[in-house]
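Tokens in:
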């Protein structure tokens, strides 16, 4: 495993600026088979040859299309088109729902787990479709986007509560005592719907976004602390259990970022009242301030702010970075911009290999030891959107070629 650098010696802004046009092409050289037809990206590096999941494929197609379009990078758009072609051909059912996983050659897996259509996964399919259509209108039709939404609306929506089921099997059977209902599908569906609103301008997506924000307020935003619950019970009622008391700092920042975007896109300023309490809860309890992992977020807290998982995944930092970058862009707050740059230093100095090598790790313990060394492809979505948000805020150029031109 390549030696990691100290965040204090890394120019995270420079590494962020080279992510789109240096890191990603090098990664695609080894992560996507050569050729022109539909193909899956590897799930992780080193490649263990496991199943190809809708989650990893759709996330990757989305962020490649997004960065490819913003940065004018045809290779990234072409890669997104090929990955989406694999999703369409092998993972998608005729009703528009996508199964959890297939073999890398496209052969279906007969297990219940593999054939379940998860709401969480479907959010990224919608993100990929609408974003790829903007990047390459010939790659995705409006009918495909509507088919995807039809499946979400008709097969994954708990209409009695204006919430989302976890998957199509729960939708068919109903939630049973002991089942958990998660905030995560609602959060990422809001992300997808806001992307649809921004890229299409169709006000129907604003109505759909509004319903998801209301579901968050009703079921997942804890009025006592302002923090986001990870799970509630089968009936969407809070539960006093380990799962029910779980709070993840990364999701506080992710929801805060989305609610800011929601307010910007819809004009519904009332949603901003939730942003401060979420960010304040994470700021008060979520950051490691000492030792080799200073500047990283804890993976999980309890409802009262106690650290319950003193490990440090990569993705929570990217969500905090997105929040501070957006805050810097929207308010001009220099402290928020500096915080986003510091986060970039930690991400690219601690989690990524030196230089622009396509190598990274997923998690460290409190002592700075790697506890999960997989380079998961689905994590690059988090990094890519953080890079794009930082560029939007003027914290770094979107590509290193932009830096050279400037």
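Residues out:
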């Amino acid at each position: 495993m390549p030696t990691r650098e100290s965040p204090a010696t890394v120019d995270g802004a420079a590494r962020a600026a080279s992510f789109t046009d240096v890191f990603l092409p090098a990664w695609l050289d080894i992560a996507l088979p050569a050729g022109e037809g539909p193909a899956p990206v590897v799930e992780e590096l080193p490649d263990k040859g496991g199943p190809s999941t809708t989650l990893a494929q759709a996330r990757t197609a989305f962020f490649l299309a997004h960065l490819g379009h913003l940065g004018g990078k045809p290779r990234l758009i072409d890669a997104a088109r090929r990955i989406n072609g694999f999703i369409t051909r092998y993972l998608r059912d005729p009703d528009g729902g996508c199964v959890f996983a297939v073999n890398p050659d496209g052969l279906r897996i007969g297990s219940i787990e593999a054939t379940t259509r998860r709401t969480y996964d479907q959010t990224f399919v919608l993100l990929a479709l609408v974003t790829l259509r903007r990047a390459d209108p010939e790659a995705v039709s409006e009918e495909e986007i509507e088919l995807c939404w039809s499946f979400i609306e008709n097969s994954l929506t708990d209409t009695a509560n204006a919430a989302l089921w976890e998957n199509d099997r729960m939708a068919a059977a109903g939630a049973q005592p002991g089942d958990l209902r998660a905030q995560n599908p609602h959060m990422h569906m809001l992300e997808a719907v806001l992307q649809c609103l921004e890229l299409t301008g169709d006000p129907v997506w604003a109505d759909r976004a509004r319903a998801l924000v209301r579901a968050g307020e009703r079921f997942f935003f804890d009025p006592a602390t302002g923090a986001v619950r990870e799970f509630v019970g089968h009936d969407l009622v809070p539960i006093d259990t380990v799962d029910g008391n779980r709070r993840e700092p990364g999701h506080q920042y992710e929801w805060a970022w989305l609610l800011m975007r929601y307010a910007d896109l819809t004009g519904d300023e009332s949603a901003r009242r939730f942003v401060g309490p979420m960010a304040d809860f994470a700021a008060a309890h979520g950051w490691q301030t000492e030792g080799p992992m200073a500047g990283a977020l804890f993976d999980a807290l309890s409802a009262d702010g106690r650290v319950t998982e003193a490990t440090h995944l990569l993705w929570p930092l990217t969500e905090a970075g997105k929040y501070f970058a957006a805050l810097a862009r929207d308010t001009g707050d220099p402290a928020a911009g500096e915080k986003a740059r510091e986060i970039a230093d930690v991400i690219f100095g601690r989690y990524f290999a030196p230089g622009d090598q396509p190598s990274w790790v997923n998690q460290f313990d409190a002592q700075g030891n790697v506890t999960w060394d997989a380079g998961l492809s689905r994590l690059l979505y988090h990094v890519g959107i953080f890079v794009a948000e930082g560029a939007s805020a003027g914290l770094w150029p979107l590509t290193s070629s932009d830096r050279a031109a400037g």
